[in-house]
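Pipeline run #58 for the internal structure catalog. This entry was flagged by the ingest filter as a single-chain record with no existing model, so it goes straight to prediction. Upstream metadata was stripped on purpose; only the residue string is passed forward. Reviewer on rotation: M.T. Logging verbosity set to normal.
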Amino acid sequence: MLLLGLLGLGGAYADEASPPSAPVLGYRLVASYPHDSGAFTQGLIHVDGRLYEGTGNYGASVLRRVDLTSGRVERETRLPSRLFGEGITQWRGRLVQLTWRERLGLIYDAETLKPQEAFRYEGEGWGLTHDERHWIMSDGSAVLRFLDPDSKEVVRRLTVLDGARPIDRLNELEYINGEIWANVWKRDHLVRISPETGAVIAYVDLAGLYPAAERPSQEAVLNGIAHDAASGRLFVTGKYWPRLYEIEVLPKSDP
């Protein structure tokens, strides 16, 4: 297997105001699977051996269950054209999906993907995950919101910082082994975040996974993190990407 993404403090970070103070990790490509190149991927999760994806754009937003190996859509529910789908998570046998500017959350039966109820929240909806107690939501800023799943009210806010620098444009989220992992919109890296302090624990540099020169448009950015808790496998993809990748994060190299 190729060892990729060991780019030091340049690469995906060269256009930042200052270099990252948290460690920058690399990755190993484990496998590659077909992915719908027409999907504007906003949310991705792997639960109980099943892959779910939420997509965006007005008139094209869906929630779907996808066969990992073939990329075939097994079941799909389309959102009304007035809604722009965003991040998704699983919660007690149901799926939860945000919308972008409509301030509306949707809850579905995980088996049938039929809508069951809706709820309201303030501000924009981007990414969504949970820590077994709270729903954790991003809105494109550097602040994550923790929601009570019963009341749907915000009970905590967490500012994400690399040193003293806020990390904004936080997008799709995944909770992995006690950490919050996030995409950063228009960046080819993942951010691993402490849910207690908001400090950036590390970056995972995915530059080169799907080279920018090969992408169909500037909108085809990295977005989508799914973790199979049973096996430990980690999957990533992006908007309009033709492949979904299974990767292994490499530990930090010794100095």
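catalog note: The chain has one domain: 3-249.
catalog note: Confidence is low (pLDDT under 50) at residues 1-15.
status: ready for reviewer M.T.
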